[in-house]
């Protein structure tokens, strides 16, 4: 394993400002996630969700403020930061003509990592991929199956931080449930999960905390447990509120 | 190493890429085989000539020795010259399909013999031959387009780019590996058949190495073009179209424009003018006093100036002398004709410095000895041989020695390069 | 406005808005114009040069001093291959054949000083002529402009919308085709202007020019159909482009190159020297004029003596040496003709083999049509060589007959040893004036059209195949709807 023990929180964002030209996309974002915590980041179109992910992965430089992934600033050391991150785009795109196993081997290979077949199979099992799919080309895989492959990859890489971009969009209720169980598995292994989503219900099902992003900052944050636990209906009202408000 | 192996797996599984590489290898093999067959055919044609030529000379010897007139021998005997294909000729047949590699000359005026054409079907020559240089210069870049046009944009269009970039260890090294693998496969599919052909043909190592180096450099150029266009971020289809347009310009349009420009910049009409002047000089000799011709001849060959003068009637020594004088009289035109050809070649080299397709083609034909310079070198050898031939006959003519059966065998033999 | 014209107008508007398309089309049009101007200039320049040289050598021939006729047989004559008017459009094999030919007695010389041996390797990259641009480059432009015509709509999902609006797949394809054909026609305009210019030149005939124009328009239409067909049959624009590029490189670049190699292997061509040596051997077998006891020439002598009713050649009223020269030339020329026609037949077989392979490529059929109609193909060259040989034979025999009639046998026999006899054997220069000049008889226009017809038929067949495939492609495309 090439990843070093974290020297800080899996994710720490403090007063982050990101500009695209003259346009301020993130405006003083504060966000931190502990190991084994699932954080759902909700927000309307243009609220800055994708930019937040891009900033965490080191694709956009902060104008001010800071981002730390396990203590590393992705802006200055993107490769080191990315070693701590697994990223699942909205539609996990894999190499269609490779099998599930080969895709895992390929992506691990890019970061010069190697796992035994037994380890890979264990990860597939943990991710809930049926055994007959291990050695099938992913061309015929559903979105849920692709996510399972990508989660297995994240598990194999023992990453402290998993970024999920709209993971439940387009999944049927049963697959959503399946996916939520998977997140539970990640939490048990101590990974921090940041999930960017529109899907309030799924977020409410799994998230330990829910943050609401508007105009580049967290405007409201709720937790699942304790006296401040969130009320789904209230959140829904908030979510449906016009962006301009 | 694992990463490279994984790239290979990825490449191997995408059918298009593998089919492309195999197709290119097949074309390269076919072109090398076609080149080897053609070179063999040319060697066989040269071999076939030797016995025919012997028969021809002995038939002439048959009746000439009856009188022993050396002039008859000089006038009627044609002597063979040949320009065997080099060991590397199979890779770039160049101009060998349109210029003679076999030519017979007599001891008479050379300038009316030197420029004879070969018998070939111009409709076959028009499109050009299918040789390795063609596969490399024209076809291989099209394969680069097929393999590289969606290198980055394909990942983006499939939605994998973000995830790939977020994978640690991706970045530049990933692209270097991907490009490197495709590049190596391209070069290997071209170079291996070439090297195999070179070994079969018994070519020198340096020559083969130079051709392999050219192959690698030319492919690197096109991969670079593909990479630059890929970075424009314009989508797979637009990238492919732009690359094809670049190919069109660099291998078809600009060379054709350069050809028009060079043809206009350096006209070479001296060839025809030289032929006309030579004819006038040869036939005009009959109308001027023989002494004048002989005096001119002795300037070039003072060693014969002490021989008895001609008496105004026909004498072979006078006949050969005025032929030589005619050659000398058109030497400036011959020189300027040659100069014109060299100038065109020189300009082509300049064009080749700018247009890789032209440069590679020129370098290949140079290495293969199938370009215009090789043609001129062959002409130089013929010139040198012709001088030996003339001076072989002169002692018989100027000393009035009979030409015997044995003398036919003493005639100088052409030494190919 | 009907749906069809709307679709066509929309597609054209899209091309018009794409800067790349406009630049590409403009570039090609500029290229055709440059090619047209340089080709016309080159053609008239070459034609002028050759005409001037021809006049010069004709005059030189007429101005030769008193000579022995046999000396004039070897002084010989130069002739220059004239360039047909349509060579300005398609010079065909002109650069690949010698253009100056030396004619003399009992030798058949080659046509020398062809451009191909004088032009460095660049000539092998293709010559910039209107024919080259239309045959090779124009299809590529049509591909660039049209590969996405239908595939783009399919990829973007607009295809379904169009179908929901009640547009049929047939109308859609027809509209796209109309747009692409319009652009193709636009490209063709400058090239057609060159043809019209050529038509106005002296010696130009309407038939071959009309056939050439029709041929190229068919060819461009054919590529437009192929492009729309592929675009409608492939799911993604990128795949359509790759398929079309592949098709183009195989039919326009690869096949025309492989065909000559296969033809040369199928019908091997001996070297000029080998032919020459076998010919010499056969010539010797026919009889040896140097041998006084040779049966063939002895028999000829007996025949002549009997004909004139004399016993010795010295008693003949004509110069026996002249008669011998006439007979010798007749015999050698018969052999030459046989070898030449064998050679032509061989080359024609090679070309036919090439054409047969070329049925796989519309570009080969197009090139054949274009060269045949222009008279710049092998047949055109053979026509020149035939006429050159006929002229050579006539000229040499006239001179030989002069030797027989105007030079006495005694002088002829003594001329090598007797300067006075030598002087008497020279005949007056007015005889040279009496010799006819070489005038190339251009082929009949009908002949050119006839020669180009098989290729025209081939091109029409080519047009038919993709045209017939359009309907099934439209049906398949509509299947996308459900």
From TrEMBL, chain A:
GO molecular function terms attached to this record: ATP binding; ATP hydrolysis activity
A Pfam entry, by short name: ABC_tran
Keywords noted in UniProt: ATP-binding, Nucleotide-binding, Transport
Ranges of residues in domain ABC transporter: 11-240
Family matches, as InterPro entries: AAA+_ATPase (IPR003593), ABC_transporter-like_ATP-bd (IPR003439), ABC_transporter-like_CS (IPR017871), ABC_Transporter_VariousFunc (IPR051782), P-loop_NTPase (IPR027417)
Name of protein: ATP-binding cassette domain-containing protein
Organism listed in the record: Novosphingobium silvae
From TrEMBL, chain C:
UniProtKB keywords: Membrane, Transmembrane, Transmembrane helix
Highest taxon above the source species: Bacteria
Keyword Glycoprotein among UniProt keywords: no
Bilayer-spanning residue ranges: 20-41, 132-151, 172-199, 205-229, 241-259, 455-474
InterPro entries: DUF3526 (IPR021913)
Protein name per Swiss-Prot or TrEMBL: DUF3526 domain-containing protein
Species this protein is from: Novosphingobium silvae
